[in-house]
Specification:
Layout: H1 3-10, H2 23-42, H3 46-59, E1 63-64, E2 76-81, E3 85-90, E4 100-106, E5 111-122, E6 126-134, E7 147-154, E8 160-165, H4 185-188, H5 192-195, E9 202-206, H6 218-231, E10 241-247, E11 252-254, E12 260-263, H7 266-280, E13 289-295, H8 312-323, H9 328-334, E14 336-340, E15 343-344, E16 366-369, E17 373-374, H10 385-397, E18 402-404, E19 414-415, H11 419-423, E20 428-433, E21 435-437, E22 444-447, H12 448-462
Parallel strand pairs: 1-2, 4-13, 4-14, 14-20, 15-21, 16-18
Antiparallel strand pairs: 2-3, 3-13, 5-6, 5-10, 6-9, 7-8, 7-10, 11-12, 12-22, 16-20, 17-19, 21-22
Helix pairs in contact: 2-12, 7-12
The protein binds manganese (II) ion (MN) (2 copies).
C-alpha cells in the first residue's frame, strides 16, 4: 500500500464535527438547540426539570405508570419519584429477559441551598439568607451575580407552597456581595478556595426596617411580613423547606457564530434532555425496551431516596419485569446502559490540566468515557472493551460524530457519575456525555453540535437490535 493509503487506513484522527456534517444536519444542530434552550430555561432545579420532562413526555403520548398495569410493546409510560426524579419507558418487541436499553442522566445541579434557619438581620438593617452549598462549586463564582430563589416550603399545619422569585419579568433578584478591590488587600492574598468562604455565601434579601417598631430585627420582621403575606410562610416553616438559590442568567447563544449555548445547569440537564429526546424519537415499537432514568442527588453522591443508588429504579424495573413474568436479574444481566453525564471540554486557557491526546473537544461530538474516577481510576465503572466495541460500531454506522476522552490528566483530579451504580446492578454500562466549558460554574457552556450528536448517539443506542 502507498503510505497515504496506510495513513488513511491505520491512523485514528477525530475531526471537528462541522467538517463532517451535511448542510441539512447543520440546520438540525441549530434547530435542536432551540428546543433544548426552551427546556433548560424551565428546568432550573431538579423539581422543575422533572415537571418539564413530564409535560414533554405527556405531549409525546407517555402515560403515568402504575404497578400492575398491563403493558404491550409500543406502550410509553413514565413515573415520578418524589417530584425529583423521573423514569420513562418505551416497551419493546423482545422480552425483557433479552435486556433493556437504559439511558441514565441526572437533573440536579450544583447550587446554594438555604440552611434550615436561614433568615437573619445584620448591621445595619441588612437582611440575609444563610446558605449551605450543594455539590462541587467554586465559591467565589457565586458572589456579585444576580440570583433567584426557588423551591418548596411545607407549611406549619400542612400544605406545600411553591416559591419562585426572580425568574418572572419584573421580579426582584438577589445577590451575594463581594468586597470592593480597594479594600481587597487581605482577600487577594488568600487562595481562590478561601477568598470567599462557605459561611460568607449569605444572600442579600432586604434592607428596610419595619416602620413604627421599636424591637430588634426590624428589617427581618418586614421581610417575614412580606413572606407571610405572599406565601403564608412563618420563620419556623424554613425548617421544612427545600429552597435553592440559583443563578439568574438567561439561556443564550454564545459567540458570533452562535455555535455555543451558555446557561446554568447544563450538567446534567443537557444529557437528560438528550436522553428524553432519544426516547421521544423512537418510532413505533423498538426491538428492546428503552428506559430513561433521570436521577437526583448525583452532585452529592447519588444518595437518598431520589438518587441513583436508591431502590426506586429497581422497583420500577421489577414492576415492569413482573408484568411479563421475567425475573429482574435476568433483565439486568442482559441490559446495557449509557450513563449520560457531561465531561470537561478541553479548555486551551487551562490546557495544563489535561492530556490533549485524551481530552474531549467542543464540536468534536458526544464523548464516550470508558472510565472516570480519580487517582488510578478509583470510583470508576470502567466499561468492558466489548461494550465499547459494540457501541463504537453502532455509532459509526449511524454516522454519529463522537470522541473518546478522560477527565483531565492523570492525578490532576477526577470525578464520578452514576455509571458505577448501574454497574453494581450488573448492568453493562459506559459513560457518555456532552463536553462542557466552565463546568459547575453558575454559567456553563456547551456546543450545539455536541448536544445534537448526544441525541443521535442515544437514538442509535435505542435502535440497536441486540
Ligand atoms: Mn454531572
Ligand atoms: Mn456535576
Amino acid at each position: 500500500m502507498e503510505h497515504q493509503e496506510l495513513r488513511k487506513n491505520l491512523f485514528y484522527a477525530p475531526k471537528n464535527g462541522y467538517d463532517r456534517i451535511s448542510e441539512e444536519e447543520r440546520r438540525g444542530v441549530f434547530k435542536t438547540a432551540e428546543a433544548y434552550k426552551a427546556f433548560l430555561s424551565r428546568a432550573k432545579t431538579e423539581r422543575d426539570a422533572a415537571m418539564a420532562t413530564v409535560e414533554l413526555a405527556e405531549a409525546d403520548g407517555f402515560v403515568p405508570y402504575s404497578r400492575g398495569m398491563k403493558l404491550t410493546p409500543g406502550d410509553r409510560v413514565y413515573t415520578v419519584n418524589h417530584g425529583k426524579s423521573v423514569i420513562l419507558a418505551v416497551i419493546g418487541r423482545d422480552g425483557l429477559d433479552t435486556g433493556a436499553h437504559i439511558l441514565a442522566a441526572h437533573i440536579d445541579s450544583p447550587r446554594l441551598d438555604l440552611k434550615p434557619m436561614p433568615l437573619y438581620e445584620d448591621k445595619k438593617e441588612l437582611v440575609y439568607l444563610k446558605t449551605h452549598y450543594y455539590g462541587g462549586i467554586k465559591k467565589y463564582q457565586w458572589a456579585a451575580i444576580p440570583l433567584e430563589l426557588r423551591g418548596v416550603v411545607a407549611l406549619t399545619g400542612g400544605g406545600v407552597v411553591n416559591v419562585e422569585i426572580g425568574s418572572k419579568p419584573g421580579d426582584p433578584v438577589f445577590t451575594i456581595t463581594d468586597l470592593l478591590p480597594h479594600l481587597g488587600k487581605d482577600q487577594n492574598a488568600k487562595t481562590l478556595a478561601e477568598g470567599i468562604s462557605g459561611e460568607a455565601l449569605n444572600v442579600l434579601v432586604g434592607s428596610v426596617p419595619m416602620a413604627e417598631e421599636e424591637g430588634a430585627d426590624r428589617a427581618k420582621l418586614a421581610i417575614l411580613a412580606w413572606l407571610f403575606e405572599q406565601y403564608g410562610i412563618r420563620e419556623e416553616d424554613f425548617l421544612s423547606a427545600e429552597l435553592s438559590i440559583i443563578p439568574h442568567f438567561p439561556v443564550s447563544d454564545v459567540g458570533l457564530d452562535r455555535s455555543l449555548i451558555g446557561g446554568y445547569g447544563h450538567d446534567d440537564r443537557c444529557c437528560a434532555y438528550s436522553a428524553i429526546r432519544a426516547l421521544f424519537d423512537i418510532n413505533g415499537i423498538p426491538a428492546k425496551t428503552a428506559v430513561c432514568v433521570l436521577a437526583d442527588k448525583e452532585e452529592i453522591g447519588s444518595v437518598g431516596v431520589t438518587g441513583m443508588q436508591s431502590r426506586f429504579f429497581d422497583t420500577f424495573m421489577e414492576d415492569l419485569c413482573e408484568g411479563f413474568g421475567i425475573p429482574l436479574r435476568a433483565c439486568y444481566e442482559a441490559s446495557s446502559c449509557l450513563s449520560a453525564d457531561v465531561c470537561n471540554a478541553f479548555d486551551p486557557i487551562y490546557a495544563e490540566v489535561s492530556d490533549p491526546r485524551n481530552s474531549a473537544y467542543a464540536n468534536y461530538g458526544v464523548s464516550f468515557m470508558k472510565y472516570t474516577g480519580s487517582r488510578g481510576k478509583s470510583g470508576s465503572n470502567d466499561a468492558n472493551a466489548e461494550l465499547v466495541g459494540t457501541l463504537r460500531t453502532a455509532l459509526n454506522n449511524a454516522n454519529v460524530v463522537w470522541q473518546m476522552s478522560e477527565l483531565g490528566k492523570v492525578d490532576q483530579g477526577g470525578g464520578g457519575t452514576v455509571a458505577c451504580y448501574m454497574g453494581n446492578r450488573n448492568i453493562s454500562t459506559i459513560d457518555i456525555g456532552i463536553p462542557v466549558l466552565s463546568m459547575h460554574a453558575p454559567y456553563e457552556v456547551i456546543a450545539k453540535l455536541d448536544l445534537y450528536m448526544a441525541i443521535r448517539a442515544m437514538s442509535a443506542f435505542c435502535a440497536m437490535e441486540d
